[in-house]
Design goal:
Layout (H helix, E strand, L loop, with lengths): L2 H44 L11 H4 L21 H5 L4 H20 L1
Length: 112
C-alpha cells in the first residue's frame, strides 16, 4: 500500500470521527436541556447567590457580596495573599466608588 493511500484513509477516518463528535455534542445538548431547566428553577426558587469561582477567601467566593474593606481585614497595609484576589477585578460598583472618591479629592485640592 502506498503511503499516500494510508494517509488518505487516516484523514478520512479522522474527519468522520470529528463529524461524529459534533453530532454527539448536538444530541447531548438537547438531552441535557431538561436538567439545566430544572436547575434554573431550583436556583430561582431558593434564591441562590452567584456562582462560587474560588474557595479561598470570602471576597473571592461571592464577588457581589464583597465590601471595600474585606481584603484588608488583617491590616490596612496587608498584601494580597490569595492568588485569586489578583486574578479577579473588584465589582464595578466598588471601582466606581473608588473613582468617585478620587475625583472628589482632586476637586478639594483644586479649591484650596
Amino acid at each position: 500500500m502506498r503511503k499516500s493511500t494510508f494517509y488518505f484513509i487516516y484523514m478520512t477516518v479522522n474527519l468522520i470521527l470529528l463529524f461524529l463528535l459534533f453530532v454527539h455534542a448536538s444530541v447531548r445538548q438537547e438531552a441535557d436541556l431538561k436538567g439545566i431547566r430544572e436547575k434554573t428553577q431550583i436556583v430561582q426558587r431558593l434564591g441562590l447567590t452567584d456562582l462560587c469561582l474560588f474557595t479561598e477567601a470570602s471576597y473571592t467566593r461571592h464577588l457581589s457580596q464583597a465590601d471595600l474593606h474585606t481584603p484588608f481585614q488583617d491590616s490596612p497595609m496587608s498584601l494580597e495573599h490569595f492568588p485569586s484576589g489578583s486574578i479577579v477585578a473588584p465589582p464595578a460598583v466598588i471601582r466606581k466608588i473608588g473613582t468617585n472618591s478620587a475625583t472628589k479629592t482632586q476637586r478639594r485640592k483644586e479649591k484650596i
